[in-house]
């Protein structure tokens, strides 16, 4: 079994103050894309399949969660799942990526989402591989 560990900044305090001072602002601005859950399976060929749940307040084509990535602890890109359209009415949503090759000796990866306006920066997960 694998363990999930949250990493990266949690920006709740940043969001609460503007929403308190400007009622209704939360419906106008979408924040950064957050990874909410990660499930990993090891295939018989030694590659991995990642099932990643992302939450983002997509507003349409000009601001939506547009990808998530699997990174080695040193930041090396191991895999990327591009999201080609907004998920305005489907939140959170889960998408999968199979065939991710992880170098021998790596036991943990980082899964990070990004959106079309802010890039990376929301909540990410550090995942122990099975």
Instruction: Give average pLDDT, whole number.
Output: 79
> How many individual domains?
1
CATH architecture: Sandwich
Percent of residues in helical segments? under 10%
Q: List SSEs in N-to-C order.
A: EHEEEEEEEE
C-alpha termini separation? 6 Å
Share in β-strands: 35-45%
CATH superfamily name? C2 domain
CATH class: Mainly Beta
What's the alpha carbon Rg, rounded to whole Å? Answer: 15 Å
Tally of DSSP β-strands: 9
Shape: elongated
Count of DSSP helices? Answer: 1
Structural class: mainly beta
Reported by name, the CATH topology is: Immunoglobulin-like
SSE diagram, text form:
Elements: E1 4-7, H1 12-21, E2 34-42, E3 48-55, E4 65-71, E5 77-82, E6 93-100, E7 108-115, E8 119-120, E9 124-128
Antiparallel strand pairs: 1-9, 2-3, 3-6, 4-5, 4-7, 7-8, 7-9
Outline the structure in words.
The longest helix is centred in the N-terminal third of the chain and has 10 residues, at 12-21. This protein has 1 helix and 9 strands; from the N terminus they run βαββββββββ. A hairpin with a 5-residue loop joins strand 4 (65-71) and strand 5 (77-82). The chain has one helix at 12-21; strands spanning 4-7, 34-42, 48-55, 65-71, 77-82, 93-100, 108-115, 119-120, 124-128. Strands 1, 4, 5, 7, 8 and 9 form a 6-stranded antiparallel sheet that branches. A 3-stranded antiparallel sheet has the order 2-3-6, with no helix packed on it. The model is unreliable at 8-29 (pLDDT under 50). It has a single domain (4-128), classed as C2 domain (Immunoglobulin-like). It has 130 residues and is mainly beta.
